[in-house]
Structures are given as structure tokens and as C-alpha cells.
Design goal:
By secondary structure, the protein is mainly α. Helices cover 76% and strands 0% of the residues. The chain has 10 helices and no strands. The mean pLDDT is 86.
Length: 249
Amino acid sequence: MSVSSSRKITQILGAELEKLVTLPLIWRTLIGTFILNLVLAAAFTSAGLQGAAGTQNILNIGLASMGYLQAGFIILGVSATCSEYTGGQIRTTLTAIPWRGIQLSAKHLALAAITIPAAFIIAASGVLYTFIRLRDTAVGFEIDIMIKTLVGATGYLTLTTLLSAAIGALLRRTTPALVILLGYYYIVSPLTRDFLPKYLPDTAGSYMYMPPSSDEINVLTPMQGTGILMLWTLIFITAAIVIYRKRDA
């Protein structure tokens, strides 16, 4: 009996989700990132107690760890796609699921399903900790700004994870993928940010969660930053799928 296309896609998505959920490295990465975020939030909040804490300051302090936090999600994305190449597990996957384009697309969707709630919880934990510590000095705290900022932070971490997963699928090896990605995010980008345009993934994406400020003129709006980072992510995912379909496992 033939299986309908929609049911086939659902089954493949379920299989990919099950593989990610049962991968210990995924949970170790998320738990480690959560703990690191709380440690950094405590450190930044202690420093922030020296000054006033309005709405913007609480968000800025609560999300000050984003630059470090994204490393955990980069590792998450690379691990999700490179783990199957360890020990040749990818051959088993392709034997069971010969539709390569659908399989890799389903893996990214399954990864997004895990990353979205995890990213929101981790980002929100830093902001919540900061708010609890600074609530006595928080004048006119606006919950709608906080929600929009957390949604932007969640979107940024999710897209960064998917982009990293696509690069992991292109390179098929964990170490080279991490060296390239971490080297770009933590060495190349900071050193060239004043010279390169604001349309690179991390620079544009940072506007997704940047709280509104009257002290500086933002080059991009949150929607523009979202669109640019999403475009980068789709380009790399598309390239990964095209190459994945043409090469040997």
C-alpha cells in the first residue's frame, strides 16, 4: 500500500525529531547553555546594580549574554547535522529515508521545533533573573517591550541554529564547521564590524532583539534584521539540500 505524501513527510519529521530528542549531546548542550546564561546574567546584573535600571536597562542587562549564548546554539545546530556522520549512521538514515531533500528539510524543521522553546526559556531566564534583582529600581517597566524583545531573541537564536545546521550539513564534520562558525562570530565579525556592511548574519540579526533606544539611531529595524538573517539562513539551507542530494553519503 502506498503512503500518501503528507503522511510520508509527517513520518519522516517524526523520525528526525525522535533522533534529535534521543541524542544526549543535544540535551547536554542545552543544559550547559542554560546554566552558562544564568551565570552570566548574575554577573551582568551585579554590575548593573551600580546604576539605574529602567525598562531598557533591564532588557539590555538581561540579554547582555546573547553574544556568548549564541555559541551554545551554534554547537547545537552543528551537532544536529554532523552527528549522523559519526560512525556512518547517515547510511542507515538514507537507507530508511532515501528522499534526501525531504529528510534534510525535516531535520531542520525538527531542530527548529526543539530550538524555539529552548531559546525562549533560556533567553527569558536571563531577563527574568535581572528583573527580579532590579525590580525595585524598575520604573515604568513595559511588559510588551519585554515580550517583543524576547521573541526577537528567540528568533535570532533559532535562525542562528538553523544556519549552523546547514553549514554542518555542507561540511559534514563537526570540528571544521565549529572552527569556521565560531571563528566568524567571535573573531572575524568583531574585528571587521566597523568596516563591513550591516547585512551579515550576526550583525543584522542583533537588531531582532535590540530594545528601542532614543540614544542611538538603529541602522535596521527588527523586521529588517529578521528578514536579512532569514534570507541568509534560507540560502545556506537551500545550498545544503542541493549539495546533499548530489553527493555520496
